[in-house]
Amino acid sequence: MGTRNEIAALPPEADLARADSLAREIFSDIANKWAFLIVEFLGQRTMRFGELRDHIGGISHKMLTQNLRMLEHNGLIERTVHPTIPPRVEYALTEAGVALRAVVDGMCGWTQKYLGHIEAARRRG
Amino acid sequence: MGTRNEIAALPPEADLARADSLAREIFSDIANKWAFLIVEFLGQRTMRFGELRDHIGGISHKMLTQNLRMLEHNGLIERTVHPTIPPRVEYALTEAGVALRAVVDGMCGWTQKYLGHIEAARRRG
DNA sequence: CGGTATCCACCATGATACTG
DNA sequence: CAGTATCATGGTGGATACCG
């Protein structure tokens, strides 16, 4: 996506949204704020469970676990357990995760770019 | 916020995630499946309420209304009422919405590209 | 430290009905 | 056709506690 031209010709991908149910299911799973934030932070570097929780902020232990499991199940992140005491568990993006990171970064960039626009819209309506 | 980033050259956008609460709030509002699907379909063309509902599929009247209001409130879509009988209401993307569409398209493309990868991951784990 | 399980409050959501 | 309101209800997600 990144530098692909505007809206010009944006074909097949478009109908993914209504396409087969598996694609739709995956799309719905991953298009949520926690998944995006996790991908964003793991995109910066590999992190441990606690680091991730602290960086994200405002996420409960349970939600983080749940989303990490979901992302792992879908092959976006890889979980490495170091059998030390205390345990050390590292999470890293897979290739698919890195690819998604580009999308999430696009969204981050979008948010920054249109922050003013949005504030203005809110004041109006 | 830190304008320096540890990784290659994925700039400031990265720390938006933890940046000011307004950006975070907007990010969290919009990073959800319904918002994405609405943006995706309105990106194809302007649509009426019912059309949108039918194209998206599986969304309740209430959820659609709610999300449309949220997107309008944030200045991503524009609502035009034609005072006919029966009423005709058209929804279209604003400039900000069109820009977000690029992101959503990226996500659609990603989903298609990694569908096989994901299926494989699911079978394994 | 990280994971799992349990409990429970609350809210998001769907269904339904009514209005303009 | 589109919007709003109301209601119930089940599921989401937070808090807590305990395990490895």
UniProtKB/TrEMBL annotation, chains A, B:
Keywords: DNA-binding, Transcription, Transcription regulation. The keyword DNA-binding applies. It holds the Pfam family HxlR. Transmembrane segments: none annotated. One of its GO terms (molecular function) is DNA binding. InterPro entries: HTH_HxlR, WH-like_DNA-bd_sf, WH_DNA-bd_sf. Residues 19-119 form the HTH hxlR-type domain. This is HxlR family transcriptional regulator. It comes from Couchioplanes caeruleus subsp. caeruleus.
